Sequence to fold (30 residues):
Amino acid sequence: MNVIIDISEKLKIYVSFIFVLFVFDNKKNQ
Fold:
């Protein structure tokens, strides 16, 4: 059970990181 929590935590960090990069790239292009 602990492993699943760890994976979901890493996934949340990864997704938020991708999101930030995407938003930053979008603002740069405008």
Q: What stands out?
A: The chain has a mean pLDDT of 92. Residues 2-29 form the longest helix (28 residues). The CA atoms of residues 8 and 14 lie 10 Å apart.
